[in-house]
Amino acid sequence: MKKIYLVVLGILCALLLAGTFLDLQIDTLLFNPESAFGEFFAVAVMVPIWILVPMTTGLLFGAMLTLFRSMNIGWKLISLGLLCFGIYATYDSTSRDFGSRHLHGLPFEILVFMVIAAFLLATTLGFVAAKKYPTAVFQAAIVGVVAVCGGRLLLGVFKEMWGRQRFWTMDNPDTQFTAWYLPQFPNAERRAEMGDFIKSFPSGHSMGAISVLWLSMLPSFLGFCQRNLKKWTNGAAIFALAFWIAGASSRLVLGEHFLSDVTISAMIFLIIFITMSIITDKITPKFNNAFTR
Predict the structure, then answer these.
(1) What is the mean pLDDT of residues 64-74?
(2) Are 90 and 119 in contact (CB under 8 A)?
(3) Phi first, then psi: what are they for 181, rounded to 5°?
(4) pLDDT bucket at 188, cuts 50 / 70 / 90
(5) How many beta carbons lie within 10 A of that of residue 73, not counting itself?
(6) CA atoms of 42 and 64, how far apart (whole Å)
(7) Is pLDDT above 60 for 292?
(8) Is the dihedral of CA 195, 196, 200, 202 positive or negative?
(9) Residue 187, number of CB atoms within 10 A of its CB
(10) Residue 218 — very low, low, confident or very high, per pLDDT cuts 50/70/90?
């Protein structure tokens, strides 16, 4: 597990502390519903969800094509289960209901093309790279499917339960604002009446942005990265943090989310990501045994 991941988590914890006390004041200060910056990143931060979900699934599928015969029965069952989960998550994040709500003018056909292309390219990468770096490819695929796919689906559960109203829909923020640590459930009646207006916590766009962090695992099995592996890994992590900051800021500017919304969602992803990285690091010898003919 890389130290850079803990650095990112520490930054998020500091931002959550600030949001706990200053959520409403920060949104009031930054709110600009006409912001071109906000509109651009409203689409940009969705791209990782659309691409990385099929990409992690495709990487696992490609690795399985190469390694399946040499794997023991236990890892075969685990791989098949995760593959089915990844395929479901890919469908869920690409379905017209979910996709069309976040396209902001981008044709739905373009989204479908992006998803299919990402899956096929990742499948090819997994198939080729698994021949030389079987453990690294399989670890990246497992961590990716669980963190990227699982994290996005978990966020939907929180949104349904929490019932936090979005800033831009508030007529009187002083009375309608609720702190992030005070869930509003049961909220079935409010959900039926207000729909997406009370799904501020946590932010799906923010998780989409921070999920770019998964790309920091790819240098471990890309040949041209081997000489400067640490630099490539840290560089990918720093890029993910910068992309997340831009994407998270855009959500505050548009009044769609509060600072605590965007930090909590990023922390959920990062905690899953770090936990899975530690688990896969611990069972690396078992991976090696699983892939030995």
Answers:
(1) 87
(2) yes
(3) -90, 10
(4) low
(5) 8
(6) 35
(7) no
(8) positive
(9) 17
(10) very high
CB 236 within 8 A of CB 219: yes
Question: Is the model's pLDDT at 284 over the cut of 70?
Answer: no
Residue with tokens 């990385």: 52
Listed in sequence order, the DSSP H helices in the chain are 3-30, 36-44, 47-67, 73-94, 96-100, 108-129, 134-144, 150-162, 173-176, 188-194, 204-210, 229-253, 259-282, 284-290
Does the bond joining 202 to the residue before it have cis omega, within 30 degrees of 0? yes
Nearest-angstrom CA–CA distance, 237 and 231: 10
Span between the terminal Cα atoms of the chain, in Å: 28
Question: Residue 160 has which token pair?
Answer: 């349904």
The conformation of residue 166, written as its DSSP 8-state character, comes to: P
Which token pair is 182?
């005070």
- How far apart are the C-alpha atoms of 167 and 279, rounded to whole Å? 39
**Residues 33/254, Cβ–Cβ less than 8 Å:** yes
Q: How far apart are CA 137 and CA 125, in angstroms?
A: 9
What pTM value is reported for the model? 0.89
Separation between Cα atoms, residue 284 and residue 183, nearest integer Å:
39
What are the φ/ψ torsions at residue 189 (nearest 5 degrees)?
-70, -45
Residue written as token pair 């899975």: 276
What average pLDDT does range 122-142 have in this prediction? 93
In the chain, the amino acid numbered 16 is L
- 205, HSE (Cβ side, Cα atoms, 13 Å): 30
For 180, phi and psi rounded to 5 degrees?
-65, -30
Going by the DSSP 8-state scheme, the letter that residue 183 receives in this structure is: -
CB 134 within 8 A of CB 60: no
| Cα-based torsion angle of the residue sequence 266, 43, 146, 117 in order, rounded to the nearest 10 degrees | -150
Task: Give the separation between CA 250 and CA 32, rounded to whole angstroms.
Answer: 10
